[in-house]
Amino acid sequence: MDQAEKLRDMVKQQSVPRRISRVITITSGKGGVGKSNMAVNLAIALSRLGKRVVILDADFGLANIEVMLGIRPQYNLADLMFRGKTLTDIITPGPENIGFISGGSGIQELTNLTRDQIVYLIQKLVELDERADIIIIDTGAGIADSVLEFVAASTEVLLIATPEPTSITDAYALLKTLNRKTDFSLQDTVIKMVANRIDTYEEGKELYDKLSLVVSKFLNFKLEYLGALPQDNIVSKAVMRQKPAMILYPNSPFPKKITEFANILCENESEGTQGKKGIAQLFSNLLRSRIKK
User: Fold this and answer.
1) What dotted CATH number matches 3-14+22-292?
2) Which of 4, 26, 167, 242 is most buried when burial is the number of CB atoms within 10 A of its CB?
């Protein structure tokens, strides 16, 4: 029995959690398109709707989430895996009852986990599934393996793009590369595009139509549309002040659209999360992918 088969057996042996969290992975084809802003502000909007939300900062080594919140975490995911810290230790409290987990310097060490460490990690993530209603994963940008592995293991993905030509071509490149991965399942994944920094909502829909057309024609799958976020200078002001725009400027266009997105996602929860597997299953898929290499 190889390592991947052992991992599958270990995951099956774990007790099924009473609750399974909804995992929403946020990604983009290039950096600087507002992915982390989306993660932070969407988390707050969902928390205001009564959801227990935790952000996992999987853009390893860059710490965008903690910079945007102006909060320095004491521990990260590596402390859970290798230094005996508990799940409670590594969840840093954020504003309006959200929590976040820093990924630390990376998960390259995952291929070297012992059997006991894998069992421990899956057990802790099962616990996270039970403690959070929604887990938002903020990935890195681009088509690096660490990004694609998270996206391929996810069942619900938000793809952020802007009207810049490089953003559109890079978003398509990400989807094209993802589609070639053997561990990516179209049947098990919903990908919704968000057009960011648009001047008019018609521009956002045109952006989606362009990308959706080439995705349908050349990749043979359907890209869904969540909506568009306006160009709003309060976003950069909030980043400079290290406070979420949802809190500093609640009546501006950007926070209002984020609130609208949160409502849509909650209204479509049963439709968007059919067959959801939670964060424990996502990481088991991720580990399995790495072990195969």
Assistant:
1) 3.40.50.300
2) 26
